[in-house]
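Me: I hope this is not a bother. Any chance you could explain this protein sequence and its structure tokens? It all follows right here:
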Amino acid sequence: MTDQLLIGAILLAALALFIWDKWRYDLVAMLALLAAAVFGLVPAAEVFTGFGNPAVITVAAVLIISHAMWRSGVVDALASLMKRVGDNSFLQMVALTGLTTLCSAFISNTGTMAIMIPVALQLSRSGLGHASKVLMPMAFGSLLGGTITMIGTPPNIIIADIRQAALGTSFGIFDFTPVGLTLALVGLVFMWIFSRILVPSSGSRNAANSPYDMSSYLTELYVPAGAALISETLYEFETKIKDSFAVVAVKQGKQVITAPPRYYRIKQEDVLIIEADTETLQKIIDATGFELNADEELDQRFLVSDDIQVVEGVVGPDSRLIGRSAADLRIRHRFGVNVLAVARQGQPVKPNLANIRFKPGDVLLLQGDAEVLADVFRRFGCFPLAQRSMRIGGTRKLFTPLIIFAVAITFSALGWLSVPVAFTAAAGAMVFANIIPLRELYENIDWPIVVLLGATIPLGSALERSGAAATLADWALHISSGAPAAVAMVVLLIVTVALSNVVNNAAAAVLMAPIGLSMASTLGVSADPFLMAVAIGAALPFMTPIGHQSNILVMGPGGYAFGDYWKLGLPLTLLIIAVAVPLILWVWPLSA
């Protein structure tokens, strides 16, 4: 009983930290694992065995394959077909959500959304109207798509591995399809009909509106004879004025230097295009003797040149920018990139841009060299929202990854190779085929997810070994006392859905699966419907933005507030539960 109380206390503390979200989920999971090891709940020899678990290897391999498919332009090629849909907003939404759902069945939800969000924003200029009306349905569609196959989402991979350990055989790659595909179709039809009513457009963006008013940021300053800092560099200028600002362009007569280098020396009669708030601007004028030279539409005239671009991007859920500011990271000094504006939930954040601490879903407007901007986005885990050039390197590059992926799916579906072996081999083949460079092999694995899984799998085993899973199962069965076993499965499904909306869905699957197995064992029924209930409940967190990375990615571009998600997410969740229960029981009967 002591072990049950200890593992319960550790997991409750971990859940509280997950919800608090002060520390990243992988760190919390590792701390919980170490605590369990210290108290002897996880044997010393098994503390790190989770990192060698087939589910962890499969997730890492699927992430590599997803990046290879993204990099080769497979999804881009499909997204380009959206231009043929026409200007009808309903057809555009159907096409965007349908394609996002389809792609998410085979590659990562986040990778799909990173490509499809810019497509949706571009189409919003040609008839889609408020992009917010389609971005949330797209995010939910990516979650629905993940339920269609075993490789569509980490919870499915985890559940398949847990079944292997408990029953001796794993779920197949398409065993999830009858339930997942039906739920995806039902969910899509519901969103096509009701999202226009249930998804708010307040504060969101459309073709005519931008969350940035650059005219309130940019000002011309004329350098008269006798002004201070003449012949000094822009670096010295920016160092002298301690407040946050940036010189985004310099005008010398008819010549304009966009994003001038920091070593540029200020000359008499230069006109500096300054990005600064009113208070900082006054300090600059007082300290230097520069003269205000007001102009209109400066953002249109001086921000972009042949080599310099202004690109919008969204801060990803695992970005290195989170909790840090442009000043902390010295983005201007290290990369020559200016942070022109920041928008949060569709609204501009104006004061002291350099010191704003970034949050997931923030939308940034950056100015700099095009190649440097691409490196900055990749380095810091952000996703560009501007229309990107196609990454298709020819027919071979487009079809080679598809062939490799199809072979891996076929071999695993026919049982010729196990799923971990088939997909690890496919990831290696894509490296040897130079679809993904070797240097990018490890850069594009979502390591926090890998660490989370490696840490929580032993915790799930400890939950079962200590008897805590059986105790929790008894409590759940007591709630449904006297009712059919199907009611117990419904209780399990609802609890898993609730948990997945506040913690990482992979962690929800690891923690709830042992409870589901214990419930099935106590009732003397098949474990499969209970495992499927956990898989569905963990994969579909619709009610909060923190439930999944896809939800976070659309928060900034869609201008959503935290409370906007449940308006579509709650009725969609209730519908999915209502459809999933009889569907699971039909495909996976309770009779053992």
About this structure: The chain has 25 helices and ten strands.
